[in-house]
């Protein structure tokens, strides 16, 4: 390799390493969390959520034909990571639908904040990018209007009270 090529390669590498790390843009933010949490408001990206570890739930729902496998972060794990202090969470969807849910219900019933359905990230047009999913088939008592109304899709924010 010639000296000119080596210097050009080193220069390009130095530029790449010196480039500032790109902060998350508003388009990267999937979830905003506020209220009674440690450290105040948090804006979370897909990478932030996936870093908490993903769990799968295979279940039938009223919104899809047949059993689907949903993959996302356990809400219990998310709440633990955020050190939430609230007993209630107001979940708001992109269309401003909102519901208040006892945090204990989401934890004890093993709900997840799903990002994937059958291996693919969920689009806004298909209940994504985030969808609260309960394991409906694991507990027949979850098949109720109460829990269906708590299964918010297109989740954009959570506020803990």
TrEMBL record:
Q: Kindly give the Gene3D superfamilies that the UniProt entry links to this protein.
A: Oxidoreductase, molybdopterin-binding domain
Highest taxon listed in the record's lineage: Bacteria
Show the InterPro entries listed in the entry: OxRdtase_Mopterin-bd_dom, OxRdtase_Mopterin-bd_sf
Q: Where is the Oxidoreductase molybdopterin-binding domain?
A: 58-134
> Pfam families recorded for this chain?
Oxidored_molyb
SUPFAM superfamilies on file: Oxidoreductase molybdopterin-binding domain
**Protein name (database record):** Oxidoreductase
| Species of the source | Pannonibacter tanglangensis
Q: What is the lineage of its organism?
A: Bacteria, Pseudomonadati, Pseudomonadota, Alphaproteobacteria, Hyphomicrobiales
